[in-house]
Amino acid sequence: MVFQEELNIKELISEERERDPKFKQAWDNSRLEYKILGEVIKARKANGITQKELARKTGFKQQAISRIENKETSPSLATLCRILDELKLDIQIIPKSKA
Fold this sequence. Notes:
DNA binding; Helix-turn-helix; mainly alpha; TransReg_Diox_bact_type; Cro/C1-type_HTH; 5 helices; DNA-binding transcription factor activity; single chain
């Protein structure tokens, strides 16, 4: 039952992306944000750093790190760069593949 509902949601999203260019853009942007945040969280955990430690090292409050990781707020580019720098991560901008 859950599988069928999940499939229907995926179909609905796919149809809406084809139908509405604004929805497609918003959906694609959101997926990119989740991908970046996922990598940040993965790196933080892989290095054994807690949100509290990351907050202390970057000068932010732990609650701010939590809100960023839970996508309750979008960090500024400067904030993201401070977090990435502390985690020894870098961003590489590459052209999207034409799929």
